[in-house]
Amino acid sequence: xxxxxxxxxxxxxxxxxxxxxxxxxxxxxxxxxxxxxxxxxxxxxxxxxxxxxxxxxxxxxxxxxxxxxxxxxxxxxxxxxxxxxxxxxxxxxxxxxxxxxxxxxxxxxxxxxxxxxxxxxxxxxxxxxxxxxxxxxxxxxxxxxxxxxxxxxxxxxxxxxxxxxxxxxxxxxxxxxxxxxxxxxxxxxxxxxxxxxxxxxxxxxxxxxxxxxxxxxxxxxxxxxxxxxxxxxxxxxxxxxxxxxxxxxxxxxxxxxxxxxxxxxxxxxxxxxxxxxxxxxxxxxxxxxx
Length: 290
Description:
Layout: E1 14-15, E2 18-20, E3 32-33, E4 36-39, E5 44-48, E6 57-62, E7 66-73, E8 76-81, E9 87-91, E10 108-110, E11 114-118, E12 129-132, E13 136-137, E14 139-143, E15 146-149, E16 154-156, E17 160-162, H1 170-175, E18 187-188, E19 191-192, H2 194-204, H3 213-219, E20 222-224, E21 238-241, E22 244-248, E23 253-258, E24 263-268, H4 269-278, E25 285-288
Parallel strand pairs: 2-3
Antiparallel strand pairs: 1-2, 4-7, 5-6, 7-8, 8-9, 10-13, 10-17, 11-12, 11-16, 14-15, 15-16, 18-19, 20-25, 21-22, 21-25, 22-23, 23-24
């Protein structure tokens, strides 16, 4: 029996054998449960649709994000990312042992493409772990050119910004990822896909953004007339093809994570649209943010 035939499995907390308690009466399942909010404690954790390391990655959770756990099985945790509502399985080892507490609520986010946590405030110390852009950290205070994290480690202060001080240019954030490899399901500076690049850039600017390109295409900003000439596009406009999204960089270029080069790259705007059309996919949606 399928528990949720009419719901998007990517954002619905229901499986054939289990559903979240708040969905009781909305979806049918043999058992229900309540969730516990936990924090991601690894640099990144792959979220999959099945509890199997051989299953492809749907997305990734980065350090400090909240993942609400509803079910656990053989070292896996099933639940939902709080920020973009994506549902799936994470390795339980990537999560805090107990519930997320307010005492360690994030105060800052990582704004550099990648940085390190050091055991002492010194660049010569062997780093404890890397952190990627968008990671959320709880800072107790300054320590010279570093920020001291609550209970552990130090981060170079210039690589972080207060949670309540968002960026103001999504394209500038995306440009920090130039040359990063394309990775299906990836969402970090080690590799990311087209919609993750857009999501990460918008979230850094304090804007909510769903994870996948079809979700973004249906919800973000204002839809422009598909016949809008390329010359009328603005920096930060979003271009959508079936299964792909790019950001307009300026009057002549776009930036995207693409399987064409297997990197985040800048490409001529007209040339990119023509190249993708020649490959069999025409530009179908333009959306403007703000």
